[in-house]
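Project standup — Tuesday

K.O.: blocked on the structure for the chain from last sprint. Re-posting the sequence here as requested.
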Amino acid sequence: DPQDAIPRGTMLAIFITTVAYIGVAICVGACVVRDATGSMNDTVISGMNCNGSAACGLGYDFSRCRHEPCQYGLMNNFQVMSMVSGFGPLITAGIFSATLSSALASLVSAPKVFQALCKDNIYKALQFFAKGYGKNNEPLRGYFLTFVIAMAFILIAELNTIAPIISNFFLASYALINFSCFHASYAKSPGWRPAYGIYNMWVSLFGAILCCAVMFVINWWAAVITYVIEFFLYIYVTYKKPDVNWGSSTQALSYVSALDNALELTTVEDHVKNFRPQCIVLTGGPMTRPALLDITHAFTKNSGLCICCEVFVGPRKLCVKEMNSGMAKKQAWLIENKIKAFYAAVAADCFRDGVRSLLQASGLGRMKPNTLVIGYKKNWRKAPLTEIENYVGIIHDAFDFEIGVVIVRISQGFDISQVLQVQDELEKLEQERLALEATIKDNECEEESGGLRGLFKKAGKLNITKPTPKKDSSINTIQSMHVGEINQKLVEASTQFKKKQGKGTIDVWWLFDDGGLTLLIPYILTLRKKWRDCKLRIYVGGKINRIEEEKITMASLLSKFRIKFADIHVIGDINIKPNKESWKFFEEMIEPYRLHESCKDLTTAEKLKRETPWKITDAELEAVKEKSYRQVRLNELLQEHSRAANLIVLSLPVARKGSISDWLYMAWLEILTKNLPPVLLVRGNHKNVLTFYS
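H.V.: unblocked you, prediction finished:
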């Protein structure tokens, strides 16, 4: 039973050797004096005072050893054991056997351990020594390296110089082993289950400290060199972060610390000074909508929680299988791209149900999302009715759960899944091409017909067929060129938030008091390296006859909030009617979704309402005509003032649930943000996120 026998045998061996060493020390001390000249003539003169000297008591005067070096005695002669032994050669034989056994043990075990370290590829330069030879994978290169190191120490030819260095390295390894035991116990990892009955973690810590102290007692400069080497190796590993996982106690302690901190947070009440955007981002797979993730990461990095969410819709069994298979890959993609975010996914019968689950269940304690970030639904005019209902319903659900909403729109859209699919297909084709080239290379030296037949068979297995000319090939070429241009623009758009934005402006249209989220997000953006050259321009609504007063009031308010801004614009004509051309465009846009019940008799109108309840009625359109005017007019003002901005942050209009149809609301969002730079439509949950107090 190794778990029981090894600790017991080790402790017993330590006890026996300790008794033996103490016994030898006592025996030799009882036989040999401390210092001796080696001359039989150095006898005591009569009347001399011995002062407790053992040599003097035996009739010898070795007092001159106090002033000059002597060659004999316990302190000077390292062969005293042979000198006082009953049979001197036995001592020499013992030294040889002990040295050879230790040397052979080190020569065999050290290269094996070193080979395992090299296989982990922690230190890239040592990969050469990972190779093994023979059935047992013997580390011959490691044996040679060990031999070279051993010979280098032997050539020092001074045992008293070698011993402190070797002892220090052994003590360093013992100290690390002891500290590892302590650390594993301190981290309270369930996987750490020492079977030794009288184990105590504080004894391990004491052992580690004792080893470190003895290192300095033996030789302080050797101890310093050892620690420098240790710290260098540790810093290198910490910096490089090799792709290995040992289930270390450091991981366990990190988990315990994170858990303790999360629990401690729950005891602290929320305060407006500590508010930070904690976002759920509906990216789907994070690699499919990188621009949406990048802009969110820009104001959550190092300051708030960011969770990339995906909803798998369909049969539960298939969805769960697909979801589980991709979880690790997508989280790894986030880590690889240095995005500080988590990935979460749910399986649901419909998209809205999945998002509801995420909004309610995501997060932990105080680290719960308070902001929902979604991309603008660019294809809303062609989308099925259920998709529009789900999209608008998600916005309502977020407000019901007291979560703010951010809708992001860019001109090219976010979804690059088709581009990724094309890239995957091209990679497969490239692999097939390389495989074919390898096959041809393997067979190019074969001139026999059998070899050629084998080549054709292998080529046939690769499904390579001769292309057949088509009549509409020119049309296909034009279409493929057009698709390629679109894909190129899409790829460029997907990386626009990764680039440094340069000098420009972030235009903030703060039209509703939502608690301050519309101001806070652009302010955080200006703190980031990529956006710090952009200045904030604030636009607010006001009365034409009070523009200067309201400008001064707003400047005072922003100063109290300690938000730096380049300029403030008070828009006095925000509520006037839009131009006829703009309004006509809006009417043409909503025309396919209107019911036009006023042009029909009552029976027909009621029937149409029952059959298509989602359509925009004339009564509804008339009731919210002023709001529709406002959205169209706002776009005109945005075109006039913010067309050249790097980013527009705009208060999101909110549709009252049940009173405004989904299609009309989507038309509002469309007309509000069309033909503009990237737009963030922001609406907080009406909880204050800004304060006057620092």
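K.O.: great, moving the ticket to review. The longest strand covers residues 306-313. Residues 461-482 have pLDDT under 50 and may be disordered.
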